[in-house]
From TrEMBL:
This is DUF1517 domain-containing protein. Coiled coil: none annotated. Keywords: Membrane, Transmembrane, Transmembrane helix. The chain crosses the membrane at residues 79-105. It comes from the Bacteria.
Amino acid sequence: MKTPKSFFKSLIRSLLALGLVLTLILGQADGALAAGTGGRIGGGSFRAPGRTFAPPSGGGYSRPGGGYYPGGGGGFFPFLYFPFFGGGGSLFTLFIFISIAGFLLQSFQRATAGSELDYDSNPSVSVAKVQVGLLAQARSLQTDLDRIAQRADTDSSEGLAQVLQETTLSLLRHPEYWVYAASESRQARLQAAGAEFNRLALSERSKFTAETLSNVNDQLKQGSKDSGALTVAEKGGELAEAPGEYILVTLLVGTQSKLQLPAINSSDDVKRALSQLGSISSDQLLALEVLWTPQAEGDVLTRDDVLAEYPSLKLV
């Protein structure tokens, strides 16, 4: 009969063995489902747009005495300086009348300018996400994204708009490789939209084992070509013979314009969604993130990776 001491020793050894087995199994599963290396291009911020107003032009000609004379410049009425309509009394009355009218006009112009300056500092803006999964045969897309990342000006709205246009064009050029896609868009107040945009970006970036190429706010960073890369064989025995390899591209956009993307159910919906994003002008673009995986040479994204990390994608 076992003593309590020997029983507890056996129990502890069994628990340790079970823990080791679980650790090995879960460790292999994590490796098998890791999305792999990723690239990133981004910039911009959710700041309230500034507005400037020019002073009213053609408002008239004013003199140091405070009088206001319609016509502007030197086109004031000369009859104000000569007696008419019965002499000085009539001229004085007319002068008072014009001064009062000028005062009222100036007050109206100031009130109008003040109402224009009273605008919404926390306007409603749009946050949108489009994801496209392509067959790995579209290798030229990865080359395009690498080139865009290395040359892009991500510190200006014009440069970000160019990145968005070039990325959407690269995707639109490969419709024959589209396999999966998804889209979502929502309107929110500026401050809340910024927080939502950052949440979506962090969620997508957390799926990468490493960011091996990034250009964010004009800061270009590039890791080694094989950093964090995992081949199919290294991702698990049963995956070594998996026939499918993919490229996954995510576009996150913040824009001042109202943006309503179509629900993705077909390749035509993907085309419409990408075209809508690509048409956003630089003066409407607030922030942009372009994320793609795999990025490093030799890295792959398997079908199991796609299903595990991107469950919202639909077959197109």
